[in-house]
Specification:
Shape: elongated
Helix content: 25-40%
Keywords: Membrane, Transmembrane, Transmembrane helix
InterPro entries: DUF4230
Strand order of the largest sheet: 1-2-5
Structural class: alpha+beta
Protein name: DUF4230 domain-containing protein
Number of helices: 4
Pfam family, one: DUF4230
Number of strands: 6
Radius of gyration: 34 Å
Distance between the termini: 100 Å
Length: 222
C-alpha cells in the first residue's frame, strides 16, 4: 500500500467517524425532543386594595368529613360513591377597621366610637386529603363533585370557627389593644354604639360550650 492510498484511507476513516458522531448526536437530539416539556405560568393581578384589617386570634382545626352519594338505577341497582375527607385549617379571626365609624369631639383628646364591627374570619388556609374513595360502575366521581365537596367542607369549617372561642378571644384582644393604645397617648375612648350594634357584639362576648360527637365505625354515636 503506497503512501497516497494510506493517506486516503485515514481521511476516509476520520470522515466516517465524524459523520457517525454527527449522526448519533442528531438522533439523540431528535429523540430527546420527544420528552422535552415546556411549562409556562402567567400571574395576573386583578386589583390591589388598601385595607386596615388586624388579626387578633388564630386557631387550628381538623375536620373529618364523610361523603356518600347513592344513585338508584331503574330501581334495581343502588350504585354509590363515597369518600372520607380529612381537612386541616388555620383560621385567622380579627377585625376590619375600615368598617368602624368614629369621630373626635373638637378640642378633646377623646375618640368616640359610633359603630364597631363584629369579629370576622380574615383568612382560612386549608389542606384536604381524600381517603377510602369508592366508586360505583356508573356513579363515579367527577371534577364537579370534588369542587362541591371541598366547598361544603370549607363552609363547615367557617361555621365551626365562628362557633368556637376565637371571636371572643379576638374581642378581648381588640379591646385591650385599643384602650392601652389610647392610654399610652393620653387619649380616652368612649363607646356610643346603637342598640343593634351592642346586641351584635354581645353574641361574641362569652364562651361557647364545645360539643363533640365521635362517629364509631358502625355509624353509631358514642
Amino acid at each position: 500500500m503506497d503512501s497516497s492510498t494510506l493517506f486516503f484511507l485515514i481521511i476516509a476513516l476520520i470522515a466516517g467517524g465524524l459523520s457517525g458522531a454527527a449522526l448519533n448526536t442528531w438522533l439523540q437530539a431528535r429523540k430527546s425532543k420527544k420528552y422535552v416539556s415546556t411549562q409556562e405560568a402567567s400571574v395576573l393581578i386583578e386589583r390591589i386594595e388598601k385595607v386596615f384589617k388586624v388579626v387578633m386570634a388564630e386557631g387550628y382545626f381538623t375536620e373529618i368529613y364523610n361523603y356518600q352519594n347513592d344513585k338508584n338505577i331503574w330501581n334495581l341497582i343502588n350504585d354509590k360513591k363515597k369518600a372520607l375527607i380529612i381537612a386541616k385549617a388555620k383560621v385567622l379571626v380579627g377585625y376590619d377597621f375600615g368598617k368602624m365609624k368614629f369621630h373626635r369631639p373638637d378640642g378633646e383628646r377623646k375618640l368616640v366610637i359610633d359603630f364597631f364591627p363584629a369579629p370576622e374570619i380574615l383568612s382560612i388556609d386549608t389542606d384536604y386529603k381524600f381517603y377510602d374513595i369508592e366508586q360505583g360502575w356508573l356513579n363515579r366521581f367527577q371534577s364537579d363533585d370534588y369542587t362541591a365537596i371541598l366547598n361544603e367542607a370549607k363552609q363547615t369549617m367557617n361555621e365551626k370557627a365562628m362557633e368556637s372561642d376565637l371571636p371572643r378571644i379576638a374581642g378581648n384582644q381588640v379591646q385591650l389593644m385599643i384602650f392601652q393604645l389610647a392610654a399610652s397617648m393620653n387619649w380616652s375612648i368612649e363607646m356610643k354604639l346603637p342598640d343593634g350594634n351592642v346586641a351584635l357584639l354581645r353574641e361574641f362576648s362569652h364562651y361557647r360550650t364545645l360539643e363533640a360527637e365521635i362517629d364509631s365505625l358502625d355509624g353509631r354515636k358514642e
